[in-house]
Amino acid sequence: MAEVFKNLINGKWxxxxxxxxxxxxxxxxxxxxxxxxxxxxxxxxxxxxxxSIDAKREWRKLGQFNRGQMLYQVANEVERNLTEIAETLxxxxxxxxxxxIGETQRGIAILRYYASEGMRKDGDVIPSSDxxxxxxxxxxxxxxxxxxxxWNFPVAIPIWxxxxxxxxxxxxxxxxxxxxxxxxxxIVQCFEKAGIPKGVLNFVTGKGSVVGxxxxxxxxxxxxxxxxxxxxxxxxxxxxxxxxxxxQLEMGGKNPVIVLNDADVKSAVDGVISGAFKSxxxxxxxxxxxxxxxxxxxxxxxxxIKETEKIKVDNGITEDTWMGPCASESQLNTVLDYIKIxxxxxxxxxxxxKQLKNANLADGFYVEPTIFENVASHMRIAQEEIFxxxxxxxxxxxxxxxxxxxxxxEYGLSASLYTTNIGAALTFIEDIESGxxxxxxxxxxxxxxxxxxxxxxxxxxxxxxxxxxxxxxxAIKTVLIKSK
Length: 484
Ligand SMILES: NC(=O)C1=CN([C@@H]2O[C@H](COP(=O)(O)OP(=O)(O)OC[C@H]3O[C@@H](n4cnc5c(N)ncnc54)[C@H](OP(=O)(O)O)[C@@H]3O)[C@@H](O)[C@H]2O)C=CC1
Ligand SMILES: O=C(O)CCC(=O)C(=O)O
Hints:
Belongs to the aldehyde dehydrogenase family. By secondary structure, this protein is α/β, with parallel strands linked by helices. It contains 15 helices and 23 strands.
């Protein structure tokens, strides 16, 4: 029988109060159960929130430096368990092992980045208009932060939320996506083994509609950070606004890549292949609309198809696999539905489009990398987030039309331009409506020390990662002192 993972509440590994369990399966082989998790109740969440409240004073008083030192210990613990964590990630979520190793290494680097935040300033001195006064700001934690994460980056996203929350002095109630909760449990084990004090990090698994819903409707938490779908994000925003809880949302993307006629075609093709199909297209930063100037269209399309033909789809744990399965059956069905919708809308399917069911793939959630052309910007496949390896080619006459099409989206997370013309690059940087702006670089890929987030419906305007995280996880006290 597969291993059973428990909740971590007030420093103790505990079963759900109703004794209900849920399985997490391998998307490369639905017969393989990766682990069994607690299907927790609202009461379990309340207990976790109370334990975070009880722990927050002492954790705050430990000081930023000492909290940072603790994160170094966690980083070392994750490093010791890197192989096991990465293999679990691949088996539970489907991305290839090299990608999973890369993500786990990124998690370690994020932990070390925020560990070193412990040694950086937590305020500024500001000259007062009163010459006898000392005025300064001091950052203070929010208190208890609820963290709800998706399944597509089960190591990096939880860590890039938990690490800054903790170093800036908050305590945490963490609910991972059910589809990748075993990987999340292994990360939480590293915090516990590193000696995180009881109640500082609580971990509760279970249904979004129960565990997630209880967190977002709690009046006892002080902040909530969420990455996932727009539909759930809206629920978070509504509940948090009603309760006066600070919130931060990171949701979808429909990321454009513009290829101009002076682009280096090889570099553009490599960028689109990697940006669109790595992680089976399941990144909020994945490339999905490829907008190409007409004079280079045929050359680019032929080169793109030639490279796509080389993609080997198989179990992510197998050494030479380039693209693994979709993360779940429902994700596979969403992708297949959109492929059908694209055809019904009149777009032309020029590559892929089918589920792969042959031989060893029969029990997994595999789909071919898929390319559509003759796509109009208003079509659903050009407007809605598919979250799979499906791209839409859109032909345009010049850069103005390209930018108009790129901006014709409710989303604004990441956008790329391929060109060798500096003037075109400057126009793009100025006119594109996107939080991440990339020139001659793929749309996916995030630097852990730089601000990350989108415009329009992609996020709530705040930024994660790097120094930007401080803005969400802290409040500012402005202090003025006079000697008498
Ligand atoms: N921006 C991004 O990075 C991501 C975007 N998505 C988009 O969302 C689509 C659907 O994916 P899905 O996993 O269903 O996304 P969800 O938004 O449903 O899941 C994200 C997280 O929210 C939790 N959750 C679900 N329902 C609630 C609720 N009512 N209250 C509070 N928390 C809740 C989930 O828990 P549980 O897992 O238990 O349901 C999970 O932890 C994808 O196809 C993709 O388009 C998905 C993942 C990441
Ligand atoms: O591109 C990346 O590395 C991160 C993307 C991301 O945050 C997401 O897909 O949720």
